[in-house]
Amino acid sequence: MLSQENLQQFERLQKFYPTKKALTLPVLWMIQEQEGWISVEAMMYVSSLLEIPVGDVYGVVTFYTMYNQQQRGKYHLQICTNISCQLRGADKLVEHACKTLNVQTEENTKDGRFTISKVECLGSCGTAPMMQMNNDFVENLSVEQLDILLNELK
Amino acid sequence: MQLDFTEKLILPNISNLHQLSVYEENGGYQAIRKAFTMQPDAVTNEVKQSNLRGRGGACFPTGLKWTFMPKSTTADKQTEKPKYLCCNADESEPGTFKDRQIIEFNPHLLIEGILCAAYAMGIKSTYIYIRGEYYKWYKILQNAVEEAYAKNYIGEKIFGTEFSTDIVVHRGAGAYICGEESALMNSVEGKRGYPRVKPPFPAAFGLWGCPTTINNVETLCNVPHIINRGWEWFSKIGSPKHPGTILLGVSGHVNKPGVYEFPTGILLSDLIYEVCGGIPGNKKIKAVIPGGSSTMWIRGEEIDGVRMDAESLKTVGTSIGTGGVIVMDEDTDVIKVLSRIAHFYHHESCGQCTPCREGTGWMEKILHNFESSEATLEDIDLLLDVANNIEGNTICALGDAAAWPVQSVIKKFRGEFERRVRKSPKVSSSIKPPHLVFAHATP
Description:
The complex is a heterodimer.
Chain A: H1 4-14, H2 24-35, H3 40-50, H4 54-63, E1 75-80, H5 83-87, H6 90-101, E2 114-119, E3 131-133, E4 136-138, H7 143-153
Parallel strand pairs in A: 1-2
Antiparallel strand pairs in A: 1-3, 3-4
Helix pairs in contact in A: 2-3, 3-4, 6-7
Chain B: H1 20-25, H2 30-35, H3 40-50, H4 62-67, E1 84-89, H5 98-105, H6 107-121, E2 125-130, H7 135-150, E3 166-171, H8 181-188, E4 212-216, H9 217-229, H10 231-235, E5 238-239, E6 242-243, E7 245-252, E8 258-263, H11 268-275, E9 285-289, E10 298-299, H12 310-315, E11 324-329, H13 334-348, H14 354-371, H15 377-390, H16 398-422, H17 434-441
Parallel strand pairs in B: 1-2, 1-4, 2-3, 7-11
Antiparallel strand pairs in B: 5-6, 7-8, 9-10, 9-11
Helix pairs in contact in B: 3-6, 5-6, 6-9, 13-14, 13-16, 14-15, 14-16, 15-16
Protein backbone atom coordinates (compact mmCIF):
# COMPACT_ATOMS: atom_id res chain seq x y z
CA MET A 1 0.00 0.00 0.00
CA LEU A 2 2.86 2.43 0.74
CA SER A 3 4.28 4.08 -2.36
CA GLN A 4 7.89 3.34 -3.28
CA GLU A 5 8.94 6.72 -1.95
CA ASN A 6 7.15 6.16 1.34
CA LEU A 7 8.59 2.66 1.67
CA GLN A 8 12.06 4.17 1.35
CA GLN A 9 11.15 6.73 3.99
CA PHE A 10 9.90 3.90 6.21
CA GLU A 11 13.20 2.04 5.82
CA ARG A 12 15.14 5.22 6.60
CA LEU A 13 13.07 5.93 9.73
CA GLN A 14 13.51 2.43 11.15
CA LYS A 15 17.08 3.11 12.25
CA PHE A 16 15.90 5.94 14.51
CA TYR A 17 13.45 3.81 16.52
CA PRO A 18 14.25 0.71 18.58
CA THR A 19 10.89 -0.97 17.76
CA LYS A 20 8.83 -1.23 14.61
CA LYS A 21 5.69 -0.42 16.58
CA ALA A 22 7.01 3.09 17.21
CA LEU A 23 6.48 3.76 13.51
CA THR A 24 2.72 3.37 13.84
CA LEU A 25 2.00 7.11 13.79
CA PRO A 26 4.50 7.96 11.02
CA VAL A 27 3.24 5.12 8.79
CA LEU A 28 -0.40 6.05 9.35
CA TRP A 29 0.50 9.60 8.32
CA MET A 30 2.11 8.32 5.13
CA ILE A 31 -1.01 6.32 4.28
CA GLN A 32 -3.34 9.21 5.04
CA GLU A 33 -1.28 11.53 2.85
CA GLN A 34 -1.40 8.96 0.04
CA GLU A 35 -5.02 7.85 0.32
CA GLY A 36 -6.73 10.72 2.12
CA TRP A 37 -8.05 8.46 4.89
CA ILE A 38 -7.34 5.28 6.85
CA SER A 39 -9.48 2.34 5.72
CA VAL A 40 -9.80 -1.03 7.48
CA GLU A 41 -7.60 -2.52 4.74
CA ALA A 42 -4.98 0.12 5.50
CA MET A 43 -5.04 -0.81 9.18
CA MET A 44 -4.50 -4.46 8.29
CA TYR A 45 -1.62 -3.47 6.04
CA VAL A 46 0.02 -1.44 8.84
CA SER A 47 -0.47 -4.35 11.22
CA SER A 48 1.37 -6.67 8.87
CA LEU A 49 4.09 -4.13 7.98
CA LEU A 50 4.88 -3.38 11.63
CA GLU A 51 4.21 -6.90 12.91
CA ILE A 52 1.74 -5.75 15.54
CA PRO A 53 -1.89 -6.81 16.19
CA VAL A 54 -4.44 -5.07 14.00
CA GLY A 55 -6.31 -4.17 17.20
CA ASP A 56 -3.35 -2.02 18.26
CA VAL A 57 -3.46 -0.16 14.95
CA TYR A 58 -7.22 0.31 15.27
CA GLY A 59 -6.73 1.57 18.83
CA VAL A 60 -4.31 4.22 17.60
CA VAL A 61 -6.41 5.30 14.62
CA THR A 62 -9.50 5.78 16.79
CA PHE A 63 -7.62 7.58 19.57
CA TYR A 64 -6.16 10.42 17.51
CA THR A 65 -8.62 12.86 15.97
CA MET A 66 -6.56 13.66 12.89
CA TYR A 67 -6.70 10.19 11.35
CA ASN A 68 -9.68 10.17 9.04
CA GLN A 69 -11.75 7.04 9.32
CA GLN A 70 -13.89 8.15 6.42
CA GLN A 71 -13.25 10.04 3.24
CA ARG A 72 -13.34 13.80 3.57
CA GLY A 73 -14.07 16.48 1.02
CA LYS A 74 -11.28 17.75 -1.20
CA TYR A 75 -11.13 20.79 1.07
CA HIS A 76 -11.42 19.97 4.74
CA LEU A 77 -12.24 23.20 6.57
CA GLN A 78 -11.52 22.72 10.26
CA ILE A 79 -12.70 25.78 12.14
CA CYS A 80 -11.25 26.29 15.61
CA THR A 81 -14.00 27.06 18.11
CA ASN A 82 -11.98 27.06 21.30
CA ILE A 83 -11.80 30.02 23.70
CA SER A 84 -9.64 32.56 21.86
CA CYS A 85 -11.43 31.92 18.56
CA GLN A 86 -14.81 31.77 20.32
CA LEU A 87 -14.18 35.22 21.84
CA ARG A 88 -13.57 36.55 18.32
CA GLY A 89 -16.59 35.06 16.60
CA ALA A 90 -15.70 31.49 15.54
CA ASP A 91 -19.23 30.18 16.12
CA LYS A 92 -20.56 32.61 13.51
CA LEU A 93 -18.00 31.33 11.01
CA VAL A 94 -19.10 27.73 11.47
CA GLU A 95 -22.75 28.69 11.12
CA HIS A 96 -22.02 30.76 8.02
CA ALA A 97 -19.91 28.07 6.33
CA CYS A 98 -22.54 25.37 6.97
CA LYS A 99 -25.32 27.62 5.67
CA THR A 100 -23.38 28.64 2.57
CA LEU A 101 -22.46 25.07 1.65
CA ASN A 102 -25.77 23.65 2.86
CA VAL A 103 -24.21 20.94 5.03
CA GLN A 104 -23.91 20.00 8.69
CA THR A 105 -20.50 19.73 10.32
CA GLU A 106 -18.67 16.46 9.53
CA GLU A 107 -20.85 15.97 6.43
CA ASN A 108 -19.32 16.09 2.94
CA THR A 109 -20.93 18.36 0.35
CA LYS A 110 -22.69 16.44 -2.44
CA ASP A 111 -19.98 17.31 -4.94
CA GLY A 112 -17.36 15.96 -2.52
CA ARG A 113 -15.45 19.23 -2.47
CA PHE A 114 -15.95 20.37 1.13
CA THR A 115 -16.19 19.07 4.70
CA ILE A 116 -16.59 21.42 7.64
CA SER A 117 -15.44 20.42 11.11
CA LYS A 118 -15.50 22.20 14.45
CA VAL A 119 -12.16 21.49 16.07
CA GLU A 120 -10.31 22.14 19.31
CA CYS A 121 -7.55 24.72 19.77
CA LEU A 122 -5.16 24.78 16.81
CA GLY A 123 -2.52 26.89 18.55
CA SER A 124 -3.10 30.05 16.60
CA CYS A 125 -4.84 32.08 19.31
CA GLY A 126 -3.09 35.36 18.49
CA THR A 127 -4.58 35.36 15.00
CA ALA A 128 -8.08 34.24 15.98
CA PRO A 129 -10.50 33.35 14.58
CA MET A 130 -8.88 30.87 12.26
CA MET A 131 -9.27 27.55 10.52
CA GLN A 132 -7.12 24.84 9.09
CA MET A 133 -7.77 24.12 5.43
CA ASN A 134 -6.14 20.78 4.68
CA ASN A 135 -2.58 21.44 5.88
CA ASP A 136 -2.71 25.24 5.79
CA PHE A 137 -3.69 27.68 8.51
CA VAL A 138 -6.02 30.51 7.43
CA GLU A 139 -5.79 33.15 10.12
CA ASN A 140 -7.60 36.35 11.15
CA LEU A 141 -10.66 35.04 9.35
CA SER A 142 -13.86 37.02 8.82
CA VAL A 143 -17.19 36.04 7.27
CA GLU A 144 -16.29 38.11 4.19
CA GLN A 145 -12.92 36.40 3.77
CA LEU A 146 -14.55 33.02 4.21
CA ASP A 147 -17.00 33.86 1.42
CA ILE A 148 -14.17 34.87 -0.90
CA LEU A 149 -12.29 31.66 -0.14
CA LEU A 150 -15.31 29.42 -0.65
CA ASN A 151 -16.09 31.08 -3.97
CA GLU A 152 -12.52 30.55 -5.16
CA LEU A 153 -12.62 26.88 -4.24
CA LYS A 154 -16.08 26.04 -5.60
CA MET B 1 8.42 49.09 34.54
CA GLN B 2 10.00 46.31 32.48
CA LEU B 3 9.15 47.67 29.05
CA ASP B 4 12.58 49.13 28.35
CA PHE B 5 14.09 45.64 27.99
CA THR B 6 14.95 45.38 24.32
CA GLU B 7 17.06 42.25 23.95
CA LYS B 8 15.06 39.27 22.81
CA LEU B 9 16.82 36.01 23.55
CA ILE B 10 14.37 33.55 22.04
CA LEU B 11 12.76 35.57 19.27
CA PRO B 12 15.30 38.22 18.21
CA ASN B 13 14.33 40.48 15.36
CA ILE B 14 16.64 38.96 12.72
CA SER B 15 15.40 38.13 9.22
CA ASN B 16 15.71 34.54 7.99
CA LEU B 17 17.06 33.31 11.32
CA HIS B 18 15.52 29.93 10.55
CA GLN B 19 18.33 29.36 8.04
CA LEU B 20 21.40 27.71 9.50
CA SER B 21 23.81 30.16 7.82
CA VAL B 22 22.00 33.18 9.26
CA TYR B 23 21.80 31.55 12.68
CA GLU B 24 25.55 30.94 12.64
CA GLU B 25 26.31 34.48 11.44
CA ASN B 26 24.52 35.65 14.56
CA GLY B 27 26.52 33.54 16.99
CA GLY B 28 24.64 30.29 16.59
CA TYR B 29 26.16 26.92 17.53
CA GLN B 30 28.80 28.59 19.71
CA ALA B 31 27.17 27.36 22.92
CA ILE B 32 27.46 23.70 21.95
CA ARG B 33 31.10 24.24 20.96
CA LYS B 34 31.69 25.79 24.38
CA ALA B 35 29.77 22.95 26.07
CA PHE B 36 32.17 20.43 24.51
CA THR B 37 35.04 22.16 26.32
CA MET B 38 33.25 21.51 29.63
CA GLN B 39 32.50 18.28 31.49
CA PRO B 40 28.89 17.13 30.98
CA ASP B 41 28.15 17.63 34.69
CA ALA B 42 29.44 21.19 34.46
CA VAL B 43 26.87 21.91 31.72
CA THR B 44 24.09 20.54 33.91
CA ASN B 45 25.42 22.52 36.83
CA GLU B 46 25.40 25.73 34.82
CA VAL B 47 21.72 25.21 33.99
CA LYS B 48 20.95 24.25 37.57
CA GLN B 49 22.61 27.34 39.01
CA SER B 50 20.86 29.60 36.50
CA ASN B 51 17.57 28.61 38.18
CA LEU B 52 15.92 28.17 34.78
CA ARG B 53 12.39 26.88 35.33
CA GLY B 54 10.47 24.87 32.77
CA ARG B 55 8.33 26.88 30.39
CA GLY B 56 5.83 24.12 29.65
CA GLY B 57 3.53 24.93 32.54
CA ALA B 58 4.83 23.21 35.65
CA CYS B 59 7.77 25.62 36.26
CA PHE B 60 9.97 22.78 37.52
CA PRO B 61 13.71 23.66 37.80
CA THR B 62 15.30 22.39 34.57
CA GLY B 63 18.82 21.71 35.85
CA LEU B 64 17.44 19.75 38.79
CA LYS B 65 15.38 17.64 36.39
CA TRP B 66 18.51 16.87 34.40
CA THR B 67 20.30 15.63 37.54
CA PHE B 68 17.62 12.95 37.95
CA MET B 69 19.02 11.12 34.92
CA PRO B 70 21.36 8.26 35.85
CA LYS B 71 25.00 8.96 35.17
CA SER B 72 27.12 6.87 32.83
CA THR B 73 30.15 5.19 34.26
CA THR B 74 32.98 3.58 32.31
CA ALA B 75 32.29 0.19 33.89
CA ASP B 76 28.71 -0.14 32.70
CA LYS B 77 29.08 1.51 29.29
CA GLN B 78 28.44 -1.80 27.51
CA THR B 79 25.40 -2.85 29.50
CA GLU B 80 23.63 0.37 30.35
CA LYS B 81 20.33 1.28 28.74
CA PRO B 82 20.24 4.11 26.22
CA LYS B 83 19.00 7.46 27.47
CA TYR B 84 16.50 9.61 25.66
CA LEU B 85 15.34 13.21 25.52
CA CYS B 86 11.85 14.22 24.44
CA CYS B 87 11.25 17.78 23.38
CA ASN B 88 7.62 18.60 24.02
CA ALA B 89 6.34 20.64 21.06
CA ASP B 90 2.78 19.38 21.39
CA GLU B 91 1.43 22.77 22.51
CA SER B 92 -2.30 22.06 22.56
CA GLU B 93 -3.42 24.06 25.57
CA PRO B 94 -6.01 26.64 24.48
CA GLY B 95 -4.48 30.11 24.60
CA THR B 96 -0.93 28.83 24.00
CA PHE B 97 0.87 29.49 20.74
CA LYS B 98 4.44 30.43 21.65
CA ASP B 99 6.40 27.31 20.67
CA ARG B 100 4.99 27.61 17.16
CA GLN B 101 6.74 30.99 16.83
CA ILE B 102 10.06 29.57 18.01
CA ILE B 103 9.88 26.71 15.53
CA GLU B 104 9.02 29.09 12.72
CA PHE B 105 11.56 31.81 13.43
CA ASN B 106 14.39 30.22 15.42
CA PRO B 107 14.44 26.41 15.02
CA HIS B 108 18.23 26.12 15.22
CA LEU B 109 18.19 27.63 18.71
CA LEU B 110 15.99 24.70 19.72
CA ILE B 111 18.35 22.22 18.02
CA GLU B 112 21.34 23.78 19.77
CA GLY B 113 19.51 23.62 23.11
CA ILE B 114 18.79 19.95 22.49
CA LEU B 115 22.43 19.26 21.65
CA CYS B 116 23.60 20.93 24.88
CA ALA B 117 21.08 18.89 26.88
CA ALA B 118 22.04 15.70 25.04
CA TYR B 119 25.72 16.24 25.80
CA ALA B 120 25.03 17.08 29.46
CA MET B 121 22.95 13.94 30.02
CA GLY B 122 24.60 11.51 27.60
CA ILE B 123 21.52 11.26 25.40
CA LYS B 124 21.47 8.83 22.47
CA SER B 125 18.37 10.11 20.67
CA THR B 126 15.98 13.01 20.98
CA TYR B 127 12.39 12.92 19.77
CA ILE B 128 10.81 16.29 19.10
CA TYR B 129 7.12 15.56 19.52
CA ILE B 130 5.24 18.16 17.49
CA ARG B 131 1.46 18.33 17.31
CA GLY B 132 -0.03 16.94 14.11
CA GLU B 133 -1.85 20.14 13.20
CA TYR B 134 1.43 22.05 12.94
CA TYR B 135 2.18 20.65 9.46
CA LYS B 136 3.95 23.76 8.19
CA TRP B 137 6.04 23.96 11.35
CA TYR B 138 6.82 20.24 11.20
CA LYS B 139 8.26 20.86 7.75
CA ILE B 140 10.28 23.87 8.95
CA LEU B 141 11.68 21.88 11.85
CA GLN B 142 12.42 18.87 9.67
CA ASN B 143 14.24 21.12 7.24
CA ALA B 144 16.33 22.67 10.04
CA VAL B 145 17.21 19.22 11.39
CA GLU B 146 18.28 18.08 7.92
CA GLU B 147 20.44 21.20 7.50
CA ALA B 148 22.15 20.41 10.82
CA TYR B 149 22.64 16.75 9.87
CA ALA B 150 24.22 17.85 6.58
CA LYS B 151 26.84 19.85 8.49
CA ASN B 152 27.37 17.01 10.97
CA TYR B 153 25.99 19.08 13.83
CA ILE B 154 23.69 16.12 14.53
CA GLY B 155 24.55 12.45 13.97
CA GLU B 156 27.80 10.55 14.34
CA LYS B 157 30.72 12.24 16.11
CA ILE B 158 29.26 15.69 15.94
CA PHE B 159 31.51 18.76 15.66
CA GLY B 160 34.45 16.37 15.27
CA THR B 161 34.09 15.07 18.83
CA GLU B 162 33.46 11.51 20.00
CA PHE B 163 29.88 12.40 20.90
CA SER B 164 27.06 11.05 18.69
CA THR B 165 23.40 11.88 19.01
CA ASP B 166 20.30 11.81 16.81
CA ILE B 167 17.28 14.09 16.58
CA VAL B 168 13.99 12.83 15.16
CA VAL B 169 10.92 14.97 14.53
CA HIS B 170 7.90 12.88 15.50
CA ARG B 171 4.49 14.11 14.46
CA GLY B 172 1.45 13.68 16.74
CA ALA B 173 -2.02 13.18 15.35
CA GLY B 174 -4.45 15.29 17.33
CA ALA B 175 -4.67 14.58 21.06
CA TYR B 176 -4.22 17.26 23.73
CA ILE B 177 -3.31 14.62 26.28
CA CYS B 178 -0.09 13.86 24.40
CA GLY B 179 1.33 17.09 25.84
CA GLU B 180 1.38 15.24 29.17
CA GLU B 181 4.86 13.74 29.47
CA SER B 182 3.99 10.08 29.98
CA ALA B 183 1.23 10.15 27.35
CA LEU B 184 3.74 11.74 24.99
CA MET B 185 6.13 8.84 25.55
CA ASN B 186 3.41 6.28 24.86
CA SER B 187 2.59 8.14 21.67
CA VAL B 188 6.24 8.07 20.54
CA GLU B 189 6.21 4.32 21.22
CA GLY B 190 3.33 4.00 18.74
CA LYS B 191 0.52 3.56 21.25
CA ARG B 192 -2.59 5.42 22.31
CA GLY B 193 -1.57 8.50 24.27
CA TYR B 194 -2.53 7.19 27.69
CA PRO B 195 -0.77 8.80 30.65
CA ARG B 196 1.19 6.39 32.85
CA VAL B 197 0.96 6.01 36.59
CA LYS B 198 3.90 7.68 38.33
CA PRO B 199 6.19 6.60 39.91
CA PRO B 200 8.26 5.35 38.20
CA PHE B 201 9.14 8.75 36.80
CA PRO B 202 10.57 9.14 33.28
CA ALA B 203 14.15 9.60 34.49
CA ALA B 204 13.97 6.03 35.79
CA PHE B 205 11.50 4.44 33.36
CA GLY B 206 10.73 6.50 30.28
CA LEU B 207 10.74 5.69 26.58
CA TRP B 208 10.94 1.92 26.08
CA GLY B 209 11.67 1.61 29.79
CA CYS B 210 14.86 3.66 29.51
CA PRO B 211 15.86 6.85 31.36
CA THR B 212 14.20 9.82 29.66
CA THR B 213 13.99 13.57 30.20
CA ILE B 214 11.16 15.67 28.81
CA ASN B 215 11.62 19.40 28.25
CA ASN B 216 9.49 22.05 26.61
CA VAL B 217 10.67 23.85 23.43
CA GLU B 218 11.08 27.24 25.09
CA THR B 219 12.92 25.72 28.06
CA LEU B 220 15.56 24.15 25.80
CA CYS B 221 15.92 27.42 23.88
CA ASN B 222 17.20 29.14 27.02
CA VAL B 223 20.04 26.68 27.46
CA PRO B 224 22.43 27.96 24.72
CA HIS B 225 22.21 31.47 26.20
CA ILE B 226 22.98 30.15 29.68
CA ILE B 227 26.01 28.23 28.37
CA ASN B 228 27.24 31.19 26.32
CA ARG B 229 26.86 33.89 28.93
CA GLY B 230 26.88 32.01 32.21
CA TRP B 231 24.35 31.27 34.92
CA GLU B 232 24.97 34.52 36.83
CA TRP B 233 24.01 36.65 33.85
CA PHE B 234 20.84 34.63 33.25
CA SER B 235 19.75 34.56 36.88
CA LYS B 236 19.75 38.37 36.99
CA ILE B 237 17.12 38.74 34.24
CA GLY B 238 13.56 39.24 35.42
CA SER B 239 12.20 37.88 38.68
CA PRO B 240 14.84 36.39 41.02
CA LYS B 241 12.91 33.18 41.70
CA HIS B 242 11.77 32.72 38.11
CA PRO B 243 14.52 34.28 36.02
CA GLY B 244 14.97 34.77 32.29
CA THR B 245 12.79 36.08 29.56
CA ILE B 246 9.45 34.48 28.85
CA LEU B 247 7.24 34.27 25.80
CA LEU B 248 3.77 35.53 26.54
CA GLY B 249 1.03 34.74 24.06
CA VAL B 250 -1.83 37.18 24.47
CA SER B 251 -5.19 36.51 22.85
CA GLY B 252 -8.87 37.31 23.23
CA HIS B 253 -10.15 40.85 23.68
CA VAL B 254 -6.99 42.92 23.17
CA ASN B 255 -6.15 45.28 20.33
CA LYS B 256 -2.79 43.71 19.48
CA PRO B 257 -2.80 39.99 20.25
CA GLY B 258 0.43 38.08 19.65
CA VAL B 259 3.52 36.53 21.18
CA TYR B 260 5.75 38.92 23.15
CA GLU B 261 9.07 38.28 24.83
CA PHE B 262 9.86 40.07 28.08
CA PRO B 263 11.78 39.36 31.24
CA THR B 264 9.61 37.50 33.72
CA GLY B 265 7.88 39.82 36.15
CA ILE B 266 6.37 42.22 33.64
CA LEU B 267 3.18 43.71 35.08
CA LEU B 268 0.09 42.02 33.68
CA SER B 269 -1.57 45.40 33.33
CA ASP B 270 1.41 46.72 31.32
CA LEU B 271 1.26 43.67 29.11
CA ILE B 272 -2.41 44.19 28.35
CA TYR B 273 -2.57 47.99 28.12
CA GLU B 274 0.93 49.05 26.99
CA VAL B 275 2.10 46.10 24.92
CA CYS B 276 -1.19 44.82 23.54
CA GLY B 277 -2.83 48.23 23.12
CA GLY B 278 -5.66 47.73 25.60
CA ILE B 279 -9.18 46.43 25.07
CA PRO B 280 -11.17 47.09 21.88
CA GLY B 281 -13.70 49.88 22.42
CA ASN B 282 -11.91 50.84 25.65
CA LYS B 283 -14.06 48.38 27.52
CA LYS B 284 -13.25 47.14 30.99
CA ILE B 285 -11.67 43.75 31.60
CA LYS B 286 -14.01 41.20 33.10
CA ALA B 287 -11.60 38.28 33.49
CA VAL B 288 -8.11 37.11 32.59
CA ILE B 289 -6.82 33.57 32.24
CA PRO B 290 -3.09 34.08 32.79
CA GLY B 291 -1.46 30.88 31.59
CA GLY B 292 -3.62 28.81 29.28
CA SER B 293 -7.06 27.29 29.76
CA SER B 294 -6.13 25.12 32.74
CA THR B 295 -5.05 27.99 34.99
CA MET B 296 -7.31 29.69 37.52
CA TRP B 297 -9.13 32.81 36.29
CA ILE B 298 -8.67 36.21 37.89
CA ARG B 299 -11.12 39.09 37.80
CA GLY B 300 -10.32 42.24 35.84
CA GLU B 301 -10.03 44.37 38.98
CA GLU B 302 -7.46 41.94 40.43
CA ILE B 303 -4.79 42.43 37.78
CA ASP B 304 -3.27 45.62 39.23
CA GLY B 305 0.20 44.91 40.60
CA VAL B 306 0.21 41.29 39.40
CA ARG B 307 3.43 40.31 37.67
CA MET B 308 3.91 37.58 35.10
CA ASP B 309 6.02 35.20 37.13
CA ALA B 310 5.26 32.08 39.12
CA GLU B 311 5.52 33.75 42.53
CA SER B 312 3.42 36.83 41.85
CA LEU B 313 0.60 34.91 40.18
CA LYS B 314 0.53 32.53 43.13
CA THR B 315 -0.44 35.45 45.37
CA VAL B 316 -3.70 35.85 43.46
CA GLY B 317 -4.38 32.11 43.49
CA THR B 318 -3.31 31.23 39.98
CA SER B 319 -0.22 30.20 38.02
CA ILE B 320 1.78 31.24 34.98
CA GLY B 321 1.24 27.94 33.18
CA THR B 322 2.36 28.28 29.58
CA GLY B 323 2.15 32.09 29.58
CA GLY B 324 -0.95 31.99 27.37
CA VAL B 325 -2.87 35.06 28.53
CA ILE B 326 -6.53 35.17 27.49
CA VAL B 327 -8.32 38.46 28.09
CA MET B 328 -12.12 38.81 28.29
CA ASP B 329 -13.91 42.15 28.16
CA GLU B 330 -16.86 43.25 30.30
CA ASP B 331 -19.46 41.93 27.82
CA THR B 332 -18.16 38.36 27.91
CA ASP B 333 -20.54 35.62 28.98
CA VAL B 334 -18.23 33.78 31.38
CA ILE B 335 -20.60 30.81 31.62
CA LYS B 336 -20.48 30.34 27.87
CA VAL B 337 -16.68 30.48 27.88
CA LEU B 338 -16.43 28.09 30.82
CA SER B 339 -18.85 25.75 29.10
CA ARG B 340 -16.57 25.74 26.05
CA ILE B 341 -13.59 24.95 28.24
CA ALA B 342 -15.52 22.10 29.89
CA HIS B 343 -16.37 20.74 26.45
CA PHE B 344 -12.67 20.81 25.57
CA TYR B 345 -11.61 18.78 28.60
CA HIS B 346 -14.44 16.30 28.13
CA HIS B 347 -13.44 15.87 24.49
CA GLU B 348 -9.76 15.45 25.36
CA SER B 349 -10.07 13.18 28.38
CA CYS B 350 -8.32 9.91 27.47
CA GLY B 351 -10.90 7.96 29.44
CA GLN B 352 -8.62 5.94 31.69
CA CYS B 353 -9.77 7.41 35.02
CA THR B 354 -13.44 7.36 35.98
CA PRO B 355 -13.49 10.76 37.77
CA CYS B 356 -12.11 12.48 34.67
CA ARG B 357 -13.96 10.46 32.04
CA GLU B 358 -17.37 10.84 33.72
CA GLY B 359 -16.79 14.07 35.62
CA THR B 360 -15.70 16.21 32.67
CA GLY B 361 -18.85 15.21 30.75
CA TRP B 362 -21.00 15.85 33.80
CA MET B 363 -19.52 19.33 34.27
CA GLU B 364 -20.10 20.09 30.61
CA LYS B 365 -23.73 19.03 30.87
CA ILE B 366 -24.37 21.13 33.96
CA LEU B 367 -22.75 24.14 32.30
CA HIS B 368 -24.88 23.67 29.19
CA ASN B 369 -27.90 23.81 31.48
CA PHE B 370 -26.65 27.08 32.94
CA GLU B 371 -26.13 28.41 29.44
CA SER B 372 -29.69 27.59 28.48
CA SER B 373 -31.07 28.84 31.84
CA GLU B 374 -32.25 25.38 32.80
CA ALA B 375 -30.11 25.00 35.91
CA THR B 376 -31.01 25.57 39.55
CA LEU B 377 -29.19 27.07 42.53
CA GLU B 378 -28.21 23.62 43.79
CA ASP B 379 -26.46 23.02 40.50
CA ILE B 380 -23.79 25.58 41.40
CA ASP B 381 -22.71 23.46 44.34
CA LEU B 382 -23.20 20.27 42.37
CA LEU B 383 -20.84 21.63 39.71
CA LEU B 384 -18.30 22.54 42.37
CA ASP B 385 -18.70 19.15 43.99
CA VAL B 386 -18.01 17.35 40.71
CA ALA B 387 -14.92 19.52 40.10
CA ASN B 388 -13.64 18.89 43.63
CA ASN B 389 -14.05 15.16 43.16
CA ILE B 390 -12.09 15.13 39.92
CA GLU B 391 -9.19 17.18 41.30
CA GLY B 392 -6.37 15.01 42.60
CA ASN B 393 -8.10 11.75 41.77
CA THR B 394 -6.69 10.99 38.35
CA ILE B 395 -3.49 9.52 36.91
CA CYS B 396 -2.47 12.74 35.19
CA ALA B 397 -3.17 16.44 35.59
CA LEU B 398 -5.85 16.64 32.89
CA GLY B 399 -8.46 16.09 35.59
CA ASP B 400 -7.04 18.96 37.63
CA ALA B 401 -6.84 21.10 34.51
CA ALA B 402 -10.54 20.50 33.94
CA ALA B 403 -11.47 21.20 37.55
CA TRP B 404 -9.45 24.36 38.22
CA PRO B 405 -11.21 26.69 35.78
CA VAL B 406 -14.60 25.54 37.07
CA GLN B 407 -13.61 26.03 40.71
CA SER B 408 -12.11 29.46 40.07
CA VAL B 409 -15.00 30.76 37.96
CA ILE B 410 -17.56 29.70 40.57
CA LYS B 411 -15.43 31.38 43.23
CA LYS B 412 -14.94 34.61 41.29
CA PHE B 413 -18.21 34.86 39.38
CA ARG B 414 -20.78 33.07 41.53
CA GLY B 415 -23.15 35.99 40.98
CA GLU B 416 -23.25 35.23 37.25
CA PHE B 417 -24.44 31.70 37.95
CA GLU B 418 -27.08 32.94 40.40
CA ARG B 419 -28.37 35.52 37.95
CA ARG B 420 -28.66 32.84 35.27
CA VAL B 421 -30.61 30.60 37.66
CA ARG B 422 -33.17 33.33 38.30
CA LYS B 423 -34.11 33.09 34.66
CA SER B 424 -34.65 29.36 35.03
CA PRO B 425 -38.23 27.98 35.00
CA LYS B 426 -37.10 24.88 36.88
CA VAL B 427 -37.51 24.45 40.62
CA SER B 428 -35.18 21.64 41.61
CA SER B 429 -32.16 19.93 40.20
CA SER B 430 -32.79 17.00 37.93
CA ILE B 431 -29.30 16.56 36.59
CA LYS B 432 -27.80 13.17 37.12
CA PRO B 433 -24.68 11.77 35.52
CA PRO B 434 -26.20 10.19 32.41
CA HIS B 435 -23.67 7.39 32.05
CA LEU B 436 -24.11 6.17 35.61
CA VAL B 437 -27.92 6.19 35.43
CA PHE B 438 -27.71 4.22 32.20
CA ALA B 439 -25.24 1.77 33.72
CA HIS B 440 -27.65 0.93 36.54
CA ALA B 441 -30.56 0.51 34.16
CA THR B 442 -28.70 -1.98 31.97
CA PRO B 443 -28.67 -5.64 33.02
